[in-house]
Amino acid sequence: MSVCATDTVCLLESRIAEKVGPQRFKVWFKNATRFTLTDGFLKVDVPNQFVGSWIEKHFSETIEAATEEVTGRRLAVSFAIDPSLARTLRKKQPDSQVDFAANNPERLARIHRRRGGPPPGPPLRGRFEDFVVGDSNRLAYHAARTVAEQPARQYNPLFLHGGCGVGKTHLLQAICNDAKERHAELNWVYVSGEDFTNQFVYAIKTGELDAFRHRYRCVDLLVVDDIHFFANKRATQDEFLHTFNAIDGAGKQLVMASDAPPMMIGHLSESLVNRFVSGMVVQIQAPDLETRTAFLRKRAAALKMDVPEPVIQHVAEAFQANIRELEGALLKLVAMARLTNQSLTLSLAERGLRDLVQHAVPVVRLSDIESISAIFFGLTPADLHTSRKTRTIALSRGVAMYLARKHTDMSFPEIARHMGNKNHTTVILAARRINKMLNEDGTAQWMTPAGEKEMPIRTVVAQLESQLGGAKTAGHAPAPSPAIATG
Length: 487
What we know:
single chain; alpha/beta; 11 strands; 6-stranded mixed β-sheet; 4 domains; Rossmann fold
């Protein structure tokens, strides 16, 4: 269950339940979140990246409003992953979450009918001045600033990719915010791959395709986040291909981001892949130590908390994977210090983060393995957490479990618990099966919208491991020449 440590937190959960409704609260909040209120911010712990991203994208404003009603203050809301919460999820809850996400077009349709017009877009909070630049993201930052300053002049299209929490969405939103300030007349659209798909489906159902196409094709700047959501959706891919061609043909700017590079997104049409790689493709890697320490200093200043340098160094060295993991650790320490009225010392940091450090895997994390494996097979990471056992899901889940055993220090029970609270024997059998296929030079087979697909299992594993290997940032020279947020 979600934890009610104080009456205020209990009241906050009740208020959120009233606002989102009993069904959504049961699917996304009950058993799946833990709230911590302290001076200046609300920390929301979630069991995995999928749940955190969904709640952040769809319920952030609701949480902020409920927090203000309960506390009388407008507090900053921050999300952090705590894998221990996976134990509290009901057995079928991951299935319900995936079903809810898959049926989201119906939710958007109800919003359309109730409010009229396209659904409101998420707040674009990312700004260049708040982005911490280091060797791991310098090329991506430079390309993003260039696009914002002079759209369609150099890097067009611009495609950013990297693991969860490395700053892709921040840069995409910064492009929009900076471009609209520099170019008041600029007609821009920021949208996620999921929202583009949902709006396309709704436009077909309601006979509003012309309005949908006009909204997306008559723009100066189109920014699409999480474009890997198009995997396995042939009609959406065809529609976006025409949108891409219309914008590119008019000499306007396209910017996209994904958890994986274009060639590694399963069931993405060759035509789209060719267009994505025709411009600038840049990988954002996990932040290096210097970037991590700089981020922690900036975040501590924003929280108005005096964090000693030894504590900064301890957190930066313990959590290497991404910025969200760093922020979650820092917020936990700040909350502990304020709630217990203690000074934030190195000793307190070591005690307070001991449980999180045990789950922190240097560079390679289970969430990254899940993400690249799911995207390669045209799934979402959430599919791997469900109880479903289709051929494609079982193969993707098995490969992810094999890679987790090979590239992390996690035990079989830990992997099982993190991947939808499975039984540890499931992980053992999956790892053995993939290992046997590798030893026998076996062939992986899975289903796609176009039918069955085959590939040597060695090729599958090698391609996924190349993504985990932290390859150097790659940039290709450009060819010559929610909801929806608009400007």
